[in-house]
Design a protein that fits this description.
The chain has two helices and seven strands, in the order H-E-E-E-E-E-E-E-H. By secondary structure, the protein is α+β, with helices and mostly antiparallel strands. A five-stranded antiparallel β-sheet has the order 1-2-3-6-7, with helices on both faces. The protein is globular. It starts with 24 loop residues before the first helix and ends in a 16-residue tail after the last helix. The relative contact order is 0.19.
Length: 155
């Protein structure tokens, strides 16, 4: 089922999401629905709050538009290391269509998460994949890429 993607300023996008505790068929179905919505949009990542579900899960496939599918599901993810070296990308968001925001983030990330069965996973991400996991991780904490815009100086 292709779920509707929630658009900014819907309040669910600002919620801090709850940890996933049930690794069941409903979670697997949610991840499947999220992949369908992401590919249909078409995007490279999608977090549960973007489909109206405030749970700590996101899906990502940073290479499918180049012809190689590498779908990944992240449940209860945590960033455990971030490089001091920074990189910047123009980030788009499926919940804020038609708008790009220049965002600077760590160029390398080490993350740990659980898979759909609750098994612990970890991995290192660099380049665009690092930016994508950080963007989706932000969604789980109620943070949007537009929050990284520079604020104009007062006075």
């Amino acid at each position: 089922m292709i779920r509707n993607i929630v658009k900014h300023p819907d309040t669910v996008l600002r919620q801090i999401c709850e940890r996933v505790v049930n690794f069941d068929d409903m979670l697997t179905a949610l991840a499947s629905d999220m992949f369908e919505a992401m590919y249909d949009a078409p995007g490279r990542g999608l977090a549960a709050p973007q489909v109206g579900i405030p749970l700590r899960i996101f899906v990502m496939d940073t290479t499918w538009k180049e012809g190689t599918c590498t779908p990944m599901t992240f449940v209860n993810p945590e960033i455990i290391e971030a490089s001091e070296i920074q990189q910047s990308f123009d980030e788009g968001c499926l919940s804020i269509p038609g708008e790009l925001t220049w965002v600077t983030r760590p160029a390398q990330i080490r993350m740990r998460w659980q898979d759909l069965k609750g098994v612990a996973q970890s991995g290192d991400f660099t380049g665009f994949a690092a930016a994508c996991v950080q963007h989706e991780f932000d969604h789980l904490n109620g943070v949007l890429c537009i929050d990284y815009r520079e604020k104009p100086n007062a006075g």
